[in-house]
Amino acid sequence: MEKHMFKQENGENSYIKITGEVGQEPCYSHTSFGERFYEVAVEVKRLSGNIDKVPVILPERFCSQLKAGRHVGIRGQLRTHSKDVGNHRQVLLRIFAREVWEAQDYDKGINQVELNGFLCKEPIYRRTPLNREITDLMVAVNRPYGKSDYIPCICWGKDARKAGGKKVGEPIHILGRMQNRKYVKQFPMGGQEEMVTYEISVMKILDDRE
């Protein structure tokens, strides 16, 4: 990942760039200020060969470039919003596309994220049964005009230790990638359901001097 790839355009504090294959035709999402927006999943290949199905929200003008099976690149910002899913509310993480292009190098699976934000919850540090260190973070990333997105992040190893020592309200500068992960949610009244969540897998926590 590039050391200095951050694009602070129009006051944005998040940046993401992906390349992958369009998994399906875009479907209508919502209308905002008279403009129609659509959602589509882009399949991004990891180095391991596994696939992350990354959800993208985009203006209608980009839809002609996003036919199923087409190889594309997308640049934009990360956005979150709450939605009723089944019998509970879930925070959904999406790419808000600013640029779309035909990607010849889609098979490299470019997946680059950079965030400038603040911790808005206490970090959760733990060890797996195999003694691997993990820390879960919730990072508030400010948009222009007073809005914020609350982006879940997961750190590993030395970055997990570094993140685990941070306090609520501290600034944090992250490089990583967007991934999806399946988990089983247990409900208070009994029962369970397999869910899919999206998060940022942290590759590096940058110091202020970097």
TrEMBL record:
Protein name: Single-stranded DNA-binding protein
Keyword Amino-acid biosynthesis: no
Gene3D superfamilies: Nucleic acid-binding proteins
Matches recorded under InterPro entries: NA-bd_OB-fold, Primosome_PriB/ssb
Pfam family, one: SSB
Molecular function, one GO term: DNA binding
Record's keyword terms, sorted: DNA-binding
Naturally occurring in which organism (per UniProt): Hungatella hominis
